[in-house]
Amino acid sequence: MTSHFALQWNSYTNNVCEGFCSLQKNGEFVDMTLAADGHFVKVHQLLVALSSPYLKSLISSAPCQHPVIFLNNVSNSTLMLLLEYIYTGEVLKWHDKTTQWG
Questions:
Q1: CATH architecture of 26-88
Q2: Residue 5's pLDDT band (boundaries 50, 70, 90)?
Q3: Could you give the C-alpha distances from 53 to 22, 58, 66, 82, in angstroms and in order?
């Protein structure tokens, strides 16, 4: 006789996304630093690697456990928007046609 069962966590996606955001905001379990425009932000390698094949290759080639990656020609405000997108899956920002994105 074989038993089958299914276990489903309905709020899994929300919980994981909110959990990673909270960990990053509190600086918990961060293992990499991104630098842009003179600002340094601690992040999780796993999420950054999942979001970008280019950054994944940089992380893979880093000779240390907590790499610091300098993003040339990227403003801090752009980095923060990218991280918002990586950690939440969306960016909520209003802009007008005179705004220049760097």
A1: 2-Layer Sandwich (3.30)
A2: confident
A3: 24, 9, 18, 15
